[in-house]
Amino acid sequence: MSSDEDFSLVSEKGEESPVFAMEAAKMEIVKCKVTYDMMVTDQRDLTKARDEQLHLTEEYEKRIAKLRQTMEAEEQDRTQRVEDGKAKLAAAEEEERRLQELLLSMQAELRHLDQEAVHLRQQAQESSSMPEKKLVFHGVEGTALITFEDEAVAQNIVRVKQHEIKLGDCCISLEASPVLIWMPSQVEVTTGLCSRRVLVSDLPRGVEQSRLLDRLEIHFAKRRNLGGEVDGAEMLHDSGNAVLTFVEDTVAKGLTDRQYHEVDFGDGTRSRVKLSPFLSGEITDLQTRVSASARTVLLRGIPAIMDPSDLQDQLEIHFQKKGNGGGEVEAIAYNPLRRRALAVFEDDCPAEAE
After folding, report:
1. pLDDT of 275
2. Residue 122: which of 199, 192, 227 has the closest Cα?
3. What is the Cα–Cα distance from 124 to 135, expressed in whole angstroms?
4. What sequence ranges are listed for the domain NID (predicted)?
5. Collapsing DSSP states into helix, strand and coil, what is residue 268?
6. Contacts for 253-260 with beta carbons within 8 Å, 24 or more apart?
7. What does pTM read for this prediction?
8. Which of 112, 146, 271, 347 has the fewest CB within 10 Å, making it most exposed?
């Protein structure tokens, strides 16, 4: 039997032998087992691939959900930023509008303040051109006012209060106290500039009042003297100045702009007078305070036991001695009993009394 011939386990009678059937079954079993193993392997691979696909699908779904959340958050953030930007823009526009209104208001207030400053400056210039008037202190009887060069000396004299002064064979007792003066601390005056009146000051002394007013009216009624028709002239007795009233409104300003004028009062000489704007005012608020002179002391209880001049000298000698608590005396004014005197305070720096 050659190798090319098919091998057959068929018996001579044409039937398969049991050995052949068993071998065939074994081969079929092996074949099925191989097929089964291959199917198991394929199933395992398919299961693994399915699980991997499911895992990838789950991961992709998670990433998609996360991306969707991120996109939604970014969209919300962008929308919020847009809304915030709109709100900030609206607030900025409102602030700009408010600042514009404030600027216009401040500019209007500044113009008003400038006008008030011009008015106050004009009033200050007019007030500074007014004649000066000294403050007068009304003394009482049996007193003396003594001014020291050093404030500390005056304060020491006031602090001791009672002073014994030897005058020859006798001794007098005096009481020292501060000089208290009511002073305005705040004054509000409503003033108005009169366009038809002028104030005339620096008038010459020794001229009769009626003649003085007549000469003023004659001089300032002439156009060549920058004047005009005079409606009236009067004296201010408390200050010794005069007031001229003109018919026309424009005359007064021309005269006060020049300020100083030479006037002939009929004695052959010309006197220089000062013309100032006439202010009419009304005090709307007045607040006062008590001030004490820092260097001047009031001495009371001085008996008239000797000549006033000698007594004043004795007082000055006593209070100049350091042993008596005194010091250098700048001025002293003695007012005897049953007399009245006026003391004028100049260039003093009063300290506010407690």
Report:
1. 92
2. 192
3. 20
4. 144-231, 242-331
5. coil
6. 253/195, 253/277, 254/226, 255/198, 255/220, 255/226, 255/227, 256/129, 256/198, 258/226, 259/129
7. 0.40
8. 347
